[in-house]
Amino acid sequence: LIGLTTLEPRRCHAVAREVRRDLLRDGYALTIARWVGRLAPACDQRQLRRLLELVELAGLYDADSTQRADDFVACVEMRQVPDAAPSTIEVMTIHQSKGLEFDIVVLPELDGKLSGGSPPPVVFERDGETGPITRICRFMNKETLALVPQLQPLFDRHTRRTVRESLSLLYVAMTRARHALHMVIDPPMPRQPRARLANVLICALGEQSFEPDTQLFTHGDPNWLGVAQRPEAPIEPEPTDKITIGLAPSTGPVVHAAVSPSKLAQQDLASALSFPDDEALQRGAAIHDMFQQVEWLEDWQPNQDSLQMIARRVAPRRGEDWAQRQVESFLRMVERPAVRAALSYGDRELSTLRLWREHPYARLVDGAVQRGAIDRLEARIDKGKMRAATIIDFKIDDIAPSEAPARAERYRPQLEAYRDAAAEMLRTDPTTVRMIVLFVTAGEAVTLSHQP
């Protein structure tokens, strides 16, 4: 399609240059339209329709495109384009299904926690179910909550309310079916969170353990489709035995949630109870996105327009002056010696280096999924073997240079999680992965030592 006939590095670089040249010269819409023309003979009707929708989206993107193809990929991933053609199969969330009915309902993802997804920014309680909010507090993890035990009842009530809402949502999902309901669950795992929707069903059926591909429960006529298509005839209802389902006694914790690496950083009580500063968060996101544009400083030339576009995209309501200040701040950071050293290949042989920027990952930690993104991961490969790796995590903390070592220790749990993820990805020992906290505002780089 694009001339990539081999994965030999030199050929990959050549093809990448050709694609970038076409995108800069012709734009995304025209370039992708040519690719779609080559793919069309191998596509069915729906595939071709979706590819044409991609061309249309590329045309909209061309009006405000950047020089990085990653930005277009991110735009496509975030933009939901519904299929215009009618379909006999609908895929939606449980919330979207409220008020609707379907002949068949399949629930394939029942591993959600009863306590909900990611932690909320605040917990609160009301005067009654729908009354005004009477108390509110920023959400804290259990370690921080232990410092203020008087708030524990508030968090317990929040957990119970969230569990009730999750069970209500499960009821909504199960009652959308007219004729057939299929619920697919994973077998229990030793380290898997116990407070899952799937475990509610397992306990209701009285099953303690079962093998994969096992049908735990069935009820009704499996040949309902033939019956449903026959003309209706008046029949006398037959008495049926009631099905009694009881929940097994609850054991273990109510909540078992995975923590993202960024939440592992240590903080004091004042920081835990304070609300986030939106402007500071947006500034951090803009600076991080700008640093992702730098592969190696020796080969990088700053582009003011592209950098300002990054800042505007992060905070579109902040205005041009705010965006320009972030660009100027970023360019000052890049000039600091410690930052320049961290972003340069220096005297290292470039052909032996592999680089990942804002690299996402997901891994199992104690039976739960841990998701994160590594700001910068460098690996040195010699004769096909990984020799060493370095993780660099950008921090914009406004601190004095003398405070950098102590502040870096606060981020140790986060960096160690990134180190373990990088070691799994590179199939190497974690002790070969160096951890650097790069304070870009202060211009200090702190290397964290490995601890047993």
Which descriptors would you attach to this protein?
globular, five-stranded mixed sheet, two-stranded parallel sheet
Percent of residues in beta strands? 15-25%
Task: Count every beta strand, where a strand is a DSSP E run of 2 or more residues.
Answer: 9
Number of helices: 14
Distance between the termini: 50 Å
Structure description:
The chain is an alpha/beta fold. It is built from 14 helices and nine strands. The chain has helices spanning 9-39, 45-62, 69-78, 142-145, 152-174, 197-204, 224-229, 269-273, 278-291, 304-314, 319-334, 337-342, 404-410, 412-426, and strands at 102-107, 122-126, 133-138, 177-183, 353-365, 368-382, 385-395, 433-439, 444-448. A five-stranded mixed β-sheet has the order 5-6-7-8-9. It has a two-stranded parallel sheet with strand order 1-4. A hairpin with a 4-residue loop joins strand 8 and strand 9 (444-448). The longest helix is centred in the N-terminal third of the chain and has 31 residues, at 9-39. The protein is globular and about 85 Å long. It starts with 8 loop residues before the first helix and ends with a strand. Residues 253-257 have low confidence and may be disordered.
List the helices and strands and how they pair.
Blueprint: H1 9-39, H2 45-62, H3 69-78, E1 102-107, E2 122-126, E3 133-138, H4 142-145, H5 152-174, E4 177-183, H6 197-204, H7 224-229, H8 269-273, H9 278-291, H10 304-314, H11 319-334, H12 337-342, E5 353-365, E6 368-382, E7 385-395, H13 404-410, H14 412-426, E8 433-439, E9 444-448
